[in-house]
Write a structure and sequence with these properties.
The complex is a heterodimer. Chain A is mainly alpha-helical. Chain A is about 60% helix and about 0% strand. Chain A has 2 helices and no strands. Chain B is mainly α. In chain B, about 65% of the residues lie in helices and about 0% in strands. A 3-stranded antiparallel β-sheet of chain B has the order 1-2-3. In chain B, helix 6 runs antiparallel to helix 14 and helix 11 runs parallel beside helix 13. Classes of the chains: A mainly alpha, B mainly alpha. At the A-B interface, helix 1 and helix 2 of A face helix 3, helix 6, helix 15 and helix 16 of B. Chain A: Keywords: Membrane, Transmembrane, Transmembrane helix.
């Protein structure tokens, strides 16, 4: 049993349509994909908030001054 | 592909769009270089990452819903018809056509050509907001313009079936409005809420120049954008089509290249006009800016953008003059808006893309008055009122308004702008400290080894 629905390419290609694995699960794959995308934003925004807080906490006047002078 | 001619047309069209996509990738390279050149050293990594991560985010969201929107909403909906469910279903993320499929060899390549326009729309906004926007906010806004707003405007005004084309006679062959006015308007909507960079305006409100840290990067970046823009022009054409492919509305048997509306043009025409409008823009910008390098290069871009609406039909000399007019107006508008409304557009994107695109649409309405916008029977012809309404829809309705509203929402949650301390210390503060720590450590290790 092939995941793409074909065990051999000795077929009339005019009759061949989709050739990806697990045909029939496209809606499920879309739901998983959208969840991945939304989840990424959530993780990214939390990470950015944490980084900003750490930066503010760790900044010294000297370090800030050096950073400004780098232009 | 049941005949040699069908096979040839399909393979040629696949290859044609594939090449345009590769050229258009250079637009993104150019934007990255340009933004790094324009930003200050303490913000480089943030600037680059902001413009880089829009690529995957817009790509996946354009797969999930952007492409579906283009096919679903050419009628408004409910202006010239309802939602085009059948056409959209074939382009939904769960459609078999959106995959490896031997019965559909072209959808993916055509999808990619549109996707590159989506990246460009977001990249135009990216430059204007550097050095103070939060990455997370920018990426939400990038998805909004790249996979929602610009593709709605493409369905309405940049499709053979778009309601604006049918009713208004809207004509925008190479996207003065469809990419550029909308992106400029969107950038302005974000900037109004975001506010200027610290130090941009003195206490009495006088604007200060914040010089680019690397003029060479800015120069090479803009030349790469020109190159990609030339590829973009090709991507706006259907390269080869038979009269039957235009629904029999074109008579005779001659095959032709067409613009996005399936109205005839040639690659020769658009090549003449691309280069002549680039030249007109560069020359006008050099004069009006008194030889300022930044504005001269940007003016070349603004010139092409101004002439783009009608560059399938203009004479090359018309393209050159239209470009020059657009550049002068965009340049003057930039400084007037900056002084009057305290808008800090770091790279002049609102002027170069927004005002130039807006002006280009209006000029096309007069120059091409009465010309057919489409080969199809019953469509309005090109006219000044249709172009003016189209410019308003692109710049304000689909660009400025959604950007302003979503930016306000993000700002209300404290998610739009980095805190004041972070902006002053630089957005790369921690990554730069970590880099310097690693450099110091490896230097010490090397010195220790050398001393043994």
């Amino acid at each position: 049993m092939s995941t793409i629905g074909y065990d051999s390419w000795a077929v009339d290609l005019a009759e061949v349509g989709a050739i990806y694995p697990f045909q029939g699960s496209e809606v499920l794959m879309t739901i998983i994909g959208v969840a991945f995308w939304i989840g990424w934003h959530v993780v990214q925004i939390k990470s950015e908030n944490r980084e900003i807080a750490e930066d503010i906490a760790s900044a010294t006047p000297d370090a800030v001054s050096r950073s400004i002078d780098r232009y | 592909m049941d005949s040699n001619i069908n096979a040839l047309t399909t393979v040629f069209t696949e290859f044609y769009y594939w090449v345009t996509v590769v050229f258009m990738f250079l637009i993104h390279v150019g934007f990255c270089m340009y933004e790094v050149g324009a930003s200050r050293r303490r913000n480089h990594a943030h600037t680059l990452m902001k413009n880089t991560m829009l690529i995957p985010l817009i790509t996946i969201t354009f797969f999930f819903f952007g492409w579906w929107i283009y096919w679903a909403f050419p009628n408004g909906p409910f202006i010239t018809g309802g939602v085009e469910w059948d056409a959209a279903a074939a382009n939904a993320p769960w459609s078999e056509n959106m995959s490896a499929h031997l019965g559909d060899r072209i959808t993916g390549v055509f999808w990619a050509a549109f996707l590159l326009f989506s990246w460009t729309a977001a990249s135009i906004v990216s430059g204007s907001v550097i050095e103070r926007i939060r990455s997370g906010a920018f990426w939400i806004l990038a998805v909004l313009i790249g996979s929602v707003m610009w593709i709605i405007d493409a369905a309405w005004g940049w499709s053979a079936n778009g309601w604006m084309v049918k009713l208004l006679g809207y004509h925008d062959a190479y996207a003065s409005g469809v990419i550029h006015a909308i992106a400029g308007g969107f950038a302005l909507g974000v900037l109004v809420v975001l506010g200027p960079r610290i130090g941009k305006f003195s206490a009495d409100g006088t604007p200060r120049d914040i010089p680019p840290h690397n003029t060479w990067f800015a120069t090479v970046g803009l030349f790469l954008i020109y190159t990609g823009f030339w590829g973009f022009y090709a991507a706006c054409n259907v390269p080869l089509i038979s009269p039957e492919g235009i629904g029999g509305e074109v008579t005779g048997t001659t095959w032709t290249a067409t613009n996005i509306y399936l109205a005839p043009t040639t690659l020769g025409a658009i090549t003449f006009n691309f280069l002549m409008s680039l030249s007109g823009g560069l020359m006008a910008a050099y004069c009006v800016s008194k030889g300022d390098a930044f504005w001269t290069y940007s003016g070349g871009l603004a010139g092409v953008i101004t002439a783009s609406a009608g560059n399938d039909l203009y004479h090359p000399i018309q393209a050159m003059i239209v470009a020059a007019i657009g550049v002068v107006i965009a340049y003057k508008m930039h400084y007037w808006v900056e002084r009057k409304y305290k808008i800090d557009d770091a790279v002049g994107a609102v002027a170069v893309h927004g005002y130039a695109g807006f002006i280009g649409l209006i000029i096309a309405g007069f120059l091409l008055w009465g010309a057919p916008s489409s080969p199809y029977e019953g469509y309005a012809t090109i006219n000044p009122l249709g172009q003016f309404l189209g410019a308003i829809i692109m710049f304000f309705v689909l660009g400025f308004l959604p950007a302003f509203i979503v930016s306000k929402i993000l700002a209300s949650f404290g998610m739009l702008r980095v805190p004041r301390e972070i902006e002053i210390m630089g957005l790369d503060f921690s990554s730069e400290a970590a880099y310097q720590q690693a450099v110091d450590e490896i230097k010490r290790a090397d010195h220790d080894e050398a001393a043994k």
